[in-house]
Design goal:
heterodimer; A: 519 residues; alpha/beta; 32% helix; B: 429 residues; alpha+beta; Elongation Factor Tu (Ef-tu), domain 3; 6-stranded antiparallel barrel; 10 strands; 17% strand
């Protein structure tokens, strides 16, 4: 494949030739080539396990390739540690930010490189330096702000400013928008554009092909540790990328069948929730019918997760009721909610969804042990059978039931966090960002699982910030803004423009078939 | 789950075998019995603290609670002597009566009424009133001799004596009361930690100070004990429950030259209780829903709660179990030693227990733990202690050796863990 389709035909800033990296049983990188030129945004895409992370680790100095060469500005280099990479101007911004919440912005930015005078930290200089780089990324905050008080988006900006302050010429961004709202993503893109104009090369790793389409000058696709092809300029299309990533044509996402005569299964009536500022939100009222997928859309911080948590009973509701199949669910206790037929797949698998250090089997059964036969004892055979059933039904790829969950891919982990609720067929399934950190192939499988559950008459309520996902799976969309349900969109109203308009607090033209939210 | 910590069993076997090879008396039945007894006592508090450690917490109050329960037991049982109407004069004293009975004995003018073990005779002496404990009545011909526990000394024919009866509370009731108090203390710990949201370290550190202090206040900082009262009760708790046949030790301990000889080792009460607690604990942790929930709570409290686990109740339960076992151990230590030193009894026991739990594979971060290997951990510590005694190493080295052993075991564990983690990382790419 051609690697010379660069915007400028000068020496590439980074050049990777024939890079190989083997792990026992796996060829993580197999003869990979890559060029990065000054002032371009190069997107590297591929499914999980395609080798993106390993390649980036090799560039950032945190993994050593087994063979092949890396050139920086035309000269061959060995990058033995992140520090050596940084010296050569390569910085990696991790998906999970590497910042300390207890320090201020300035302290974080200059950590380990504090300007000093006679051994004492020169705070004035520190502030000045940080201020300069904060301005560069368009973050109007004081350098003395404690980092812990910042939103994820702002923290990311700090991380970028930090990278710039080390005279970075190649910035690697790993899934930078996975926890950003639409607005914040826009701001990030502006910063990336500016960096490009300043001659910085950006290597952009993302699962969100829409973003890649919008941002990248070039796309390099990896599949199974090999170069699968590259796309330049106008050739960068969603379908073209997916074709290279999965090696076949993308399947349609849409739910095919629809049930008629749907009955309301979940009723949320005037639920009042405490929000982050210890204030109460406006009462929320909505319902979900069996067989229906309702999506809560909105910006990050619009209260979608909080609403789901309150419905599930892990967040305190001040007043209001939740009914499942007409029966009121006792409030504020998870065990009662589960008994009533509610289930919730949380946003953050690591902290609330799964016991990542435990095995597949105990994760699959943890939520149903209380109703399992033989209580209070666990019947090993029952446990094995149930786990096997779920592994088959959801297509979970795992070496064995005793495999530690942490070693599985994001998609398989997500399937397990869904599977654990399916043993006792839930009536209502709540999902918060169901495909976060899940690659394209597994994403489709998860949608198929949801569609199948819908056909089994489960009421499904999803919170999602992925616009493609919202549009692909929703029967109805409820848009939230600052803790309030703005409006319900159905049918043709479900489009990106309407959702965005409502999400930022605006209004849309009323259509005949729209349903008003105000009770 | 797959990770079973076998290292500790290997270490235990190694210590036993090496020590026996150097000094065969290590495997003598009497020594083994006392090893089992000590392992029983320390093993109980180790299992208790392991339950707490699995939840990600810690209990530093165990040693103080051991002392406090001992003091409470003594005070609740409240052994005291009550005067009776029976007065008489000594007719005759003997240094010993008929063989094989060798205790000193005396004959009174009037026949004694029915007596119980622990009753005593008082008499006037130069230092006021003295007393001497009655062992039992021995009939020689038609004369009823009173065998005494102490020497005769001031007792001569003609000295008037008075019978005092020993009075105490029902000891089983007293044990129940002490255990309820220990359980209540655990409940308070648990509630402060879960609903009060206080840190386990802080809560139980305060407990360590408070219970030790209370033990000293209640006794005026004096050693207290059950004296000669309640011999049957004490015998039950300190005696042997049954005998276990164990092969090879006779040969190892050089009491017999044949490998086929089987020795019968007496299992003391504490060993039997440990066995019972261990079986219950194992079933609870590995086969019950609550055990699974306990491990889940320790690994990730939030994820467990989101899965419908009553995490708070489980944490409270763990602290109650820990304090109950500490209370039980306190009772057994008191009966074993027959006295409590409120200022020093049980000191450092919490650290021994934590060390045993860590040796047994419990992670202080929570979520990982086992029962049998924790007992092995307690056994390792007791064996090391005994080995030091048997091998004639001076006692000052005890803590150094135990500390070094613990450190090496934990480092070894960490290295293997890192090694397996590396292998795991590589295999997923």
């Amino acid at each position: 494949m051609s690697l010379n389709l660069s915007p400028c035909a000068t020496t590439p800033r980074i050049s990777v030739r024939g890079l190989c990296k083997f792990y026992p049983g796996v060829r993580a990188l197999d003869d990979v080539n890559l060029d990065v030129f000054a002032g371009e945004v190069l997107a590297v895409v591929g499914e999980n396990g395609a080798g993106k992370s390993t390649l980036m680790k090799a560039l950032a100095g945190s993994a050593q390739p087994d063979s092949g060469q890396i050139f920086v500005d035309g000269r061959i280099v060995t990058l033995r540690s992140p520090a050596e990479s940084m010296q050569r101007g390569i910085s990696l911004i991790h998906q999970e930010l590497n910042l300390s919440n207890n320090l201020t912005i300035a302290e974080n930015m200059l950590l380990g490189r504090e300007p000093n005078r006679f051994g004492w930290i020169d705070r004035v200089k520190m502030r000045d330096i940080s201020h300069m780089y904060l301005e560069k990324v368009g973050l109007p905050l004081s350098p003395d702000t404690p980092l812990g008080s910042l939103s994820v988006a702002h923290k990311q900006m700090v991380e970028i400013a930090k990278a710039l302050s080390t005279r970075t010429s190649v910035l690697i961004m790993d899934e930078p928008t996975s926890s950003l709202s639409h607005q914040e993503t826009d701001r990030l893109f502006k910063v990336v554009d500016e960096l490009r104009r300043d001659g910085v090369s950006v290597i952009y790793i993302s699962h969100r092909l829409g973003e890649v389409h919008r941002l990248a000058n070039r796309v390099e696709v990896l599949r199974d540790g090999k170069n699968a092809g590259s796309l330049v300029g106008d050739a960068i299309h969603h379908n073209a990328m997916v074709r290279l990533m999965v090696g076949r044509d993308p399947r349609p996402l849409k739910k095919s069948e629809k049930l008629s005569n749907l009955k309301i299964r979940l009723e949320v009536d005037h639920l009042v929730i405490k929000n982050r500022k210890d204030d109460v939100n406006a009462p929320a009222t909505l319902d979900v019918k069996g067989g229906e997928i309702v999506v809560l859309a909105g910006l990050v911080g619009s209260g979608r997760s909080e609403l789901l948590e309150a419905i599930f009973g892990v967040r305190k509701a001040v007043e209001g009721t939740v009914k499942v199949d007409g029966h009121t669910v006792p409030r504020n206790r998870v065990t009662d909610s589960i008994a009533a037929g509610l289930a919730m797949v949380t946003e953050d698998r690591k902290s609330t969804g799964l016991l990542v250090e435990s095995c597949v089997r105990s994760n699959t059964t943890i939520a149903t042990l209380n109703d399992a036969p033989g209580f209070p004892f666990i019947r090993p055979r029952w446990e094995r059978q149930q786990t096997d059933l779920q592994i088959d039904a959801l297509g979970i790829k795992t070496a064995s039931q005793q495999t530690t969950v942490a070693t599985l891919s994001g998609g398989n982990q997500q399937k397990i966090s869904i599977a654990k609720w399916l043993i006792h067929s839930p009536k209502v399934l709540l999902l918060d960002e169901p495909t976060r950190g899940v690659d394209i192939g597994a994403r489709q499988e998860i949608y198929n699982i949801l569609f199948r559950l819908a056909l089994e008459n489960v009421a499904i309520l999803v919170a999602s910030s992925d616009m493609e996902e919202v549009i692909a799976i929703a029967d109805r969309v409820v848009v939230m803004h600052e803790g309030c349900l703005q409006r319900i969109l159905v049918g043709k109203e479900i489009c990106e423009r309407n959702i965005m308009q409502l999400a930022v607090g605006g209004m849309i033209e009323s259509q005949n078939n729209s349903v008003s939210m105000t009770p | 789950m797959r990770f079973q910590n076998t290292g500790i069993f290997v270490l235990l076997a190694a210590i036993v075998i090496i020590t026996t090879m150097i000094q065969p008396s290590f495997a003598a039945p009497a020594n083994l019995r006392s090893l089992i007894r000590d392992t029983g006592l320390y093993g109980l508090i180790s299992i208790g603290v392991a339950a707490v450690i699995i939840t990600g917490g810690i209990d530093l109050s165990i040693g103080s609670l051991v002392a406090l329960s001992g003091v409470l037991l003594v005070q609740v049982v409240n052994v005291r002597f009550v005067d009776t109407d029976f007065e008489s004069k000594i007719v005759e004293t003997r240094a010993t009566i008929v063989e094989p009975f060798s205790g000193p004995a005396l004959l009174l003018q009037d026949p004694l009424p029915e007596i119980a073990k622990g009753d005593q005779l008082t008499f006037a002496s130069t230092s006021g009133t003295s007393s001497v404990a009655i062992e039992r009545i021995v009939n020689v011909g038609d004369q009823s001799f009173i065998e005494l526990r102490d020497r005769l000394q001031l007792l001569r024919p003609g000295v008037p004596v008075r019978l005092q009866r020993v009075v105490s509370m029902n000891p089983y009731l007293a044990c129940g009361l002490v255990l309820s108090i220990a359980g209540l203390i655990g409940l308070i710990h648990g509630l402060l930690i879960t609903w009060g949201n206080l840190q386990p370290f802080v809560v139980t550190l305060c407990g360590l100070l408070i219970y030790r202090g209370l033990a000293r206040v209640l006794t005026g900082d004096n050693q207290v004990g059950l004296l000669g009262a309640l011999p049957e009760f004490k015998a039950r708790f300190t005696g042997s429950v049954f005998e276990l046949p164990i092969p090879f030790v006779a040969r190892l301990g050089s009491t017999d030259s044949r490998w086929t000889e089987i020795s019968w080792i007496e299992i003391p009460f504490s060993g039997a209780i440990l066995g019972l607690v261990a079986i219950t604990g194992w079933v609870f942790l590995n086969r019950s829903v609550w055990g699974r929930h306990l491990l889940a709570t320790g690994e990730n409290e939030k994820a467990a709660r989101y899965s419908g686990v009553r995490t708070r109740s489980l944490v409270v339960f763990a602290y109650v179990a820990c304090s109950l076992l500490a209370g039980l151990t306190g009772i057994m230590f008191t009966l074993e030693l027959n006295s409590v030193q409120p200022g020093s009894s049980g000191s450092f026991y919490e650290l021994y227990a934590i060390a045993a739990a860590v040796l047994g594979g419990c992670s202080l971060r929570g979520g990982r733990g086992a029962v049998l290997s924790v007992i092995a951990g307690a056994a390792v510590m007791r064996c090391l202690y005994k080995a030091i005694v048997v091998l004639g190493i001076s006692q000052e080295w005890e803590m150094v050796i135990i500390g070094v052993a613990l450190l090496s075991a934990v480092s070894f564990d960490e290295i293997t863990l890192r090694w397996t983690a590396k292998k795991r990382r590589h295999s997923i790419g």
